[in-house]
Write a structure and sequence with these properties.
Helix content: over 70%
Number of strands: 0
Number of helices: 18
Radius of gyration: 23 Å
Strand content: under 5%
Structural class: mainly alpha
Length: 492
């Protein structure tokens, strides 16, 4: 390596260190007890980071297909291929980033420092995603593939993995983790509701003002991205990593051993399965709702009230979890929610064009998904402690990255399958009414919205029924803490 390169690298590290240190002032004199009751200011700083990520992630999962097909005119088949091929790279990047986190030993934390490093690149990649140049069809497909992978495979993976891991590193108290997860998911679902229900109308208004629909997508995304940067910087500045797994494990665990510990962890596999099928449900409802409203209900503007009905009920359901979880446990609440979701879908079959009935169904689905949505990121935290108790190995980064890989696999495969089926049904996103679409396309849209979610709810119920950690968690943690030579009374 040339001397100039070494000098440049040192300057770069010094520059990062200067920014990292400048924003690190809130870390002074922090209580580093692993079982601390995390201050509310810190909980909120972390939990607001999720909406910062959700603002962009929701666009890329629920509205991006619509943007590609109905705004820039890429065929639905090509979109499906882009999403499917991208998942091949995405899986590798998740595992790679998880390993990087587990082997990071920065003064500013193993997870927290990556949030600082990736905040600005995350915002930039989001804007590029919707900045489609005036290429021909092939050029548009290539640009979409490159920017989609830059955003999801590289940048989103690199910033979301440390963010997920940070939640498990702030405290080892299960109640605190559950509370943090509940608050986080309340804010996340609110952000998702805003993006899903209000972004498309907002974009349409900006498009009317600019007389350029694509520029409207860029402007709205840039506004979201700018807000995200400031929120994520505050997450870095305020949150603290108290769980020091490197004090328990004196050296980096070889990848082979860490990977085996992850995939043989029963409760991690349950959490992963629930995440995968929940994501498939989320993508189908989120993507197909727009098509269902436009081509079956006859009014695309119904997306806002229907989506809001589901999201608001999910918010209410999550808000009730702190009182319900200690009494009923995660397993029972998730299973009950699945049954409620199934009942809601069956109810809508009585009249599939009734808007009032559709609202009731959305409300039932919202309450139904709330138990899993509210604990989805505390489940892997519990699995981390279980794995540590079972085999003496903690792998926060790899476990959360594997969860993300399942989430992205569910997202990519579901979107690809949906796109392939709609393509075979000759769906054309540039056609505005049901009369202009083929009968097969309308049938596919109905099937995705009405029947597929029932199957997904049933699968989630079966997976959740296998979760039995609630019964033994307290005893397990006392044994684990005693094994570490720490005071068991800290768990009380």
């Amino acid at each position: 390596m040339e001397k100039s390169d070494v000098t440049s690298m040192r300057k770069s590290k010094s520059h990062e260190g200067g920014i990292a240190e400048l924003l690190n002032f809130k870390q002074k004199n922090k209580d580093m007890n692993e079982f601390i009751k995390v201050p509310m200011s810190e909980k909120l700083a972390y939990c607001f980071g999720d909406p910062a990520l959700t603002l962009i992630y929701t666009i890329t999962t629920t509205l991006l297909t619509y943007f590609y097909t109905n705004v820039v005119g890429i065929s639905v088949g090509a979109v499906g291929m882009i999403l499917l091929l991208s998942r091949v790279f995405d899986g590798f990047s998740d595992v790679l980033m998880g390993t990087i986190i587990d082997r990071t030993h920065s003064k500013y934390g193993k997870a927290r420092i990556w949030i600082l490093r990736l905040a600005l690149p995350y915002a930039t990649a989001a804007v590029l995603l919707f900045t489609m140049p005036p290429f021909g069809n092939t050029g548009k497909i290539i640009y979409a593939f490159l920017t989609y992978n830059l955003m999801n495979t590289v940048v989103y993976t690199a910033i979301s993995q440390p963010f997920h891991s940070l939640g498990s590193l702030m405290s080892r108290d299960r109640t605190e983790r559950d509370t943090i997860c509940n608050i986080r998911m309340l804010l996340s679902i609110t952000a998702s509701m805003i993006v899903t229900a209000f972004t498309l109308p907002l974009i349409n208004k900006v498009a009317d003002m600019t007389h350029n629909p694509q520029i409207a997508w860029v402007i709205v995304t840039a506004a979201y991205a700018l807000c995200s940067v400031f929120i994520l910087l505050n997450t870095y500045a305020t949150c603290t990593e108290r769980v020091k797994s490197d004090e328990v494990q004196k050296e980096d665990i070889p990848f082979k051993i860490a990977f085996k510990a992850t995939i043989t962890n029963k409760y991690f596999l349950i959490a992963l399965g629930l995440m995968l099928f929940y994501t498939a449900y989320q993508i189908i409802i989120g993507t197909d709702l727009t098509y269902y409203c436009q081509y079956v209900l006859g009014d695309v503007n119904l997306v806002m009230p229907l989506s809001a009905a589901e999201k608001i009920c999910t918010i209410v359901g999550i808000a009730l979890l702190p009182k319900l979880l200690p009494k009923y446990g995660k397993r029972n609440l998730i299973c009950a929610g699945c049954l409620l979701g199934i009942a809601g879908q069956l109810l809508f079959l009585a009249n599939i064009t009734s808007v009032p009935l559709g609202v009731v169904t959305c409300m039932m689905r919202g309450f139904g998904i709330a138990p899993f949505y509210g604990v989805q990121y505390s489940l892997p935290s519990d699995a981390i402690e279980y794995g540590h108790w079972k085999n003496g190995i903690r792998v926060e980064g790899l476990m959360f990255s594997s969860m993300s890989m399942g989430q992205k696999a569910g997202s990519g495969i579901t979107s690809a399958v949906m796109s392939a089926i709609l393509s075979m049904a000759a769906f054309n996103g540039l056609k505005a009414t049901a009369a202009e679409q083929t009968a097969a396309a309308i049938s596919a849209i109905k099937a995705f919205y009405l029947y597929v979610p029932i199957a997904l709810w049933v699968i989630m119920f079966a997976i959740a029924a296998c979760y039995s950690l609630d019964k033994v968690y307290g005893k397990m943690m006392k044994e684990l803490i005693a094994r570490e030579g720490k005071n068991v009374d800290t768990l009380e």
